[in-house]
Amino acid sequence: MVDFEDLLPVMADKLGGEGLINELCNGFQLLMDKVKGVITTEILKLNAAVLGFQDLTDDELASMVKEGDLDGDGALNQMEFCVLMFRLSPQLMEESQLWLREALNEELNNAGSGIY
């Protein structure tokens, strides 16, 4: 298990939602295989020291990719990378659930009152 400090909530507070997404996209661009346009286990191995993952085994790096690989192609595209970053941030996931609840409640209240 890898311990890390969850900095995404701090970034979200400073940058706002759109700014955070832009920064995640920039991070993806820096890490991705420039030829394939995705993040692979091999790319993570090459960048392990820079990312602070130098002590992770090849299997652990492969598991990281597998965790976020929604389409099963063995690599992370930009959308999968951003979704994975949110999933790895417990505080952002909690805040996202609160935002979703508020939006649903507002939508239900508007629907009940005939306001759209």
UniProtKB/TrEMBL annotation:
It comes from the Eukaryota. This is Calcium-binding protein KRP1.
